[in-house]
Amino acid sequence: MSSALSLPLALFHCKISVLRIPQALVTRVNGLPCKDPATVQAEDFFFSGLHVPGNTTNPFGAALTPVTVTQVPGLNTLGLSIARLDFAPGGFIPPHTHPRATEIVAVLEGSLEVGFVTTNPGYKHFNKVLEKGDVFVVPLGLVHYQRNVGTGNTVAIAALNGQNAGIIAVASAVFGADPAINSDYLAKSFLLDKKTVEELQAKF
Questions:
Q1: CATH of domain 62-166
Q2: Where, in this chain's numbering, is Mn(2+) bound (predicted)?
Q3: β-bridge partners, 157
Q4: pLDDT tens-digit profile of 34-74?
Q5: Distance between CA 172 and CA 179 in Å, rounded?
Q6: Does 96 carry a binding-site annotation?
């Protein structure tokens, strides 16, 4: 049996990993090609840096340190990623969704409110304030948010069951679309006047 089979198929062309095929024919998963087994090394499974605080000097007062298939090629096709979340006092991550993953958040330090909104009908809001050691789950695709409700810095770890979960920031997607969504339509949709919509679009 080829020694290549002892390595995770995630790095190779699935099912036919031992075959040498043209790069142009390599199956793509989330936009990434599987790696030639001859080039696999330990670094493909390794990341260092989650112990380093992220830079929260931005308008949101928050930072994300991702460990996805982009940072660790060995995650390719394995359906897993992780991230460090840092929040300054008052810091937050705006409402967003992950179209390709469920998220589980564990707080390491501080106090973090995490909440999500269910689908229609109802749009029910579920939220909890998490302290050190607490965990909260956000189901796949639902609009959710995180915000630091403590007086000091907050640190959390988020794990997702996708190698590249994707992120859609709700406000940015609606008011910052390129090209822009028609402002008259948005005004009617959100029961706003056109001037307000245009002001919002200018911010994004």
A1: 2.60.120.10
A2: 96, 98, 103, 144
A3: 84, 106
A4: 888 899 999 999 999 999 999 999 999 999 999 999 999 99
A5: 12
A6: yes
